[in-house]
């Protein structure tokens, strides 16, 4: 354990020193969308500066980012509070989803999940009828998954004496879930999901779902985001609803692996180079949570013939620190 902590400190110090000569990116709850040979990054904005909503940054190689050259907004805004959009505060956890020629942005505002759309990737994303997906109860951290049979599912977090992941069938035409299909994914069961460094109710959030060889993989974050042990693991199932079997090697992203505190809540994506990556955020410093910093790490996918599943891990010594391009 001592060697792990020393390694973590050295990695954190090296990354911090590197970042001092560049302008780091402070997006939390990160997602990256890939199209046309370019990467588009968005997330929850830190620091409280600028208009509320979501902005895009663009890159060709994941390291250096800038406001898209074709953006209609100087700040790269793709969705803005009050512009035919639901929400007054707390614009968190966006996800871009393209279906049948339309781009969709699902996000959280006022502790409700929301769906907006645009014919352009760069937005602006707006709503035909301003409102949340399901206003009956608070729910956050939405993720839309389209199965190979054409059905859509919404994964999100609902409050039930803690934050728990739920799945429900989703109707893209109405932008609503089918309430009768709503099902909790799993309980808090593992020690890594509730470490003593920050006491809180159970918290599991930030879902990403993929399907490979008829197996469903649900990536999620656990612990309170202010906990230095905020981390990422995954579970596997034979259906979009589970039952989910958690990976015995969880967490796959943790401060002991990537060298920085509070490593969690992001999204899995395939790069232009066909390499898998996970984008996530970390704490601002060893003694300060926010504004949180953006990170990207290469993911290793290995087929386990005996178990009939893929195993995932990350290259913790190859963490990418995204920075803004020099003007």
TrEMBL record:
<feature type="signal peptide">
    <location>
        <begin position="1"/>
        <end position="19"/>
    </location>
</feature>
<keyword id="KW-0378">Hydrolase</keyword>
<keyword id="KW-0732">Signal</keyword>
<protein>
    <recommendedName>
        <fullName>Beta-xylosidase</fullName>
    </recommendedName>
</protein>
<keyword id="KW-0119">Carbohydrate metabolism</keyword>
<keyword id="KW-0858">Xylan degradation</keyword>
<keyword id="KW-0326">Glycosidase</keyword>
<keyword id="KW-0624">Polysaccharide degradation</keyword>
<comment type="similarity">
    <text>Belongs to the glycosyl hydrolase 43 family.</text>
</comment>
<dbReference type="InterPro" id="IPR006710">
    <property type="entry name" value="Glyco_hydro_43"/>
</dbReference>
<dbReference type="Pfam" id="PF04616">
    <property type="entry name" value="Glyco_hydro_43"/>
</dbReference>
<dbReference type="InterPro" id="IPR023296">
    <property type="entry name" value="Glyco_hydro_beta-prop_sf"/>
</dbReference>
<dbReference type="InterPro" id="IPR052176">
    <property type="entry name" value="Glycosyl_Hydrlase_43_Enz"/>
</dbReference>
